[in-house]
Amino acid sequence: MTHSDVQPEPDPRRWKALIFICLAQLMVVLDGTVVNIALPHAQADLGFSDANRQWVITAYALGFGGLLLLGGRISDMWGRRRAFMVGLVGFAAASALGGAAVSTEMLIGARALQGVFAALLAPAALSLLTVTFSEAKERAKAFGIYGAISGGGAAIGLILGGILTEYLNWRWTLYINVVFAAIALAGAVWEIREPAGARHRGRLDIPGVLLASSGLAAVVYGFSRASTDGWSDSVTIAVLVAAVVLLAAFAVVQARVREPLLPLRVVANRNRGGAYLSLGLAVIGMFGMFLFLTFYLQVVLGYSPVVAGVAFLPMVVGMMIGSTQIGARLAVRIPPRLLMAPGLLVGACGLAILAQMKVDSPYAAVVLPGLFLIGLGLGTTFMPAMSVATHGVQPRDAGVASAMVNTSQQIGGAIGTALLNTIATSATAAYVTSHSSLVTSPAAGQALKMEAMVHGFSVGIWWAVAALVLSAVVAFTLITTGRLSATERPDEDEETVPAIHGL
Known about the structure:
Elements: H1 14-30, H2 39-46, H3 50-78, H4 80-99, H5 104-132, H6 136-167, H7 172-190, H8 206-229, H9 234-256, H10 264-268, H11 270-300, H12 305-310, H13 313-330, H14 337-354, H15 367-389, H16 398-435, H17 442-478, H18 496-502
Helix pairs in contact: 1-5, 1-6, 1-7, 3-4, 3-5, 3-8, 3-16, 4-5, 4-7, 5-16, 6-13, 6-15, 8-9, 8-16, 11-15, 11-16, 11-17, 13-15, 14-15, 14-17, 16-17
């Protein structure tokens, strides 16, 4: 594919298109958390076991995380607009099926189907953004808005889930997607256009599809199982070993086939590789924090689902400010790493404030400032990170590069939830053991139980701080590109060798 120096005229409908692309992305991201708060109500209604409760969450993550690379490549080959529209229709249908579920199996199946269509929809949305906005300032602004939605979507999901569950019914946490999808689909029909000549003309790498999908699904399942059954569980160990073997085989296959599912030029580039790794580490910290704080607000502070959801608002506000006012404005003036590394350290400071939580900590003194700083820092980070992660790719690789952004976040979320949950649980058990001699009455026993739980959360959050600091180091060390200019030259195949040496 030849690359012309003549820049095509920008699509006059691009800003309207951005609204619908962001709406679709919001739907995909918030579905990772919107059902969480509704789970106890769904469990009471359908009568499923505690073991199956985890599967309502895991089924979505498995379908989504396992098929992202395939979804990204299909959007490259099939056309991003078409993939986007099919993804919307499928996601809406799966959501309606889940909302109407009359059994546990029907709900879990619908959640898995949601994940499958999300794996097509999410890369299509980000790659549409990548090929639609080519001018530097506009691209920064568009990615700023998209980054705020992607980062804040999980918190918005908790807020929306609480409101829908408390005032309507748990089923509306799924039905609401039909409304979102219908609006986004109408926008796709009328406003979204894909630039000509941006498709990947070739065959699908079937061995790569099988290895990547099974390997990524095994990673997600292995870490999800570890969070409930422990790291010493034989099935957990077997699944994680299988994941390593499958992904290693995938890397070997990708280096040898003529038309790989994931061209190594996409990830071997120093800057993009650094962005994927940095995003994954940041999400480890963020998802661990969501897990602990949701329990802290409802179990320890006694908040209702709605109030617990609304308590996350400072993070959403911080995310919007960081993405649109700091990240988008400075991205065209300073190198990405000078935004990402400080942003991640600000987020780490927010987590460090949350780690001071006690059983009787006032919300305004600990949770509010901590959440705001996390949102501000990660909002500032996500915008340049997503832009770097898709910067300079050949148009025919935009979908699979976008899929790698979502893959790093999904894997980071699965690892963060499992790893930090295990650390927190161990810390809680150790605290109870070391303080059990102080229990002299049932009331003292209950107080110790709460103190131990909060101690465990605090220890887990300190590990999340470490994940964000490590992410900042990765971003500052690996991402060496200058300002993200309008005249980016897409990678050529022969350029990948110097890129690998750069690593």
